[in-house]
Amino acid sequence: MRESIHRKGKSLAGSILLAHPVLRDPNFRRTAVLMSTHGPDGAMGVVLNRPLEKRLGELKGDFAFGPLSETPIFAGGPVQTDQLILAAWKSSGDSFQLHFGIDPEKAIQMLSDTSIRLRAYLGYSGWTAGQLENELKGGTWIIASPPADLFERPMQEGLWRTLLGEEGDQWRILADEPDEPGKN
Description:
By secondary structure, the chain is α+β, with helices and mostly antiparallel strands. It has a single domain (16-175), classed as VC0467-like (3-Layer(aba) Sandwich), CATH 3.40.1740. The protein contains four helices and nine strands. It has helices spanning 104-110, 131-137, 158-165, 169-175, and strands spanning 16-19, 32-39, 42-47, 51-55, 72-75, 79-92, 95-100, 116-128, 141-144. Strands 1, 2, 3, 4, 5, 6, 7, 8 and 9 form a nine-stranded mixed beta sheet that branches. Helix 3 (158-165) packs antiparallel against helix 4. The chain is globular.
């Protein structure tokens, strides 16, 4: 069992927010959100486990035939869903480096490093000042440290269940609950 982190008063940047199993909001139900920023003015991150089953090359415009054309696209969250955000990360040992909101030219340069993983997100998950803190007080989110192999895992819907289960037996049981318990 990994130990959950609790960072009262500290930045959650680099953490993962796992939606509580009872959260029914369709924007965040069973999501794993990688936090890129968190501070007094608000917070921002991207949903990791909502693949759109498309690549940048399928979008019209500059990406169609360029080096970024094979980059997978994910639904990053409900805010500015027409905005494309490029993110990259590099795992090394027990840590990782996150590059968020990088411009396409920098992303192309990063492709030469085979240890870097690149993703595109349409939209993002955002919270105004104090909003995330209130949701945390209400138990909406479980704060987790990203496992060292996070970016080697499939970024599919099942990622939420796996990460939540790693937080301990009580969470594993809740993560495995069916959507409709009567159909268990």
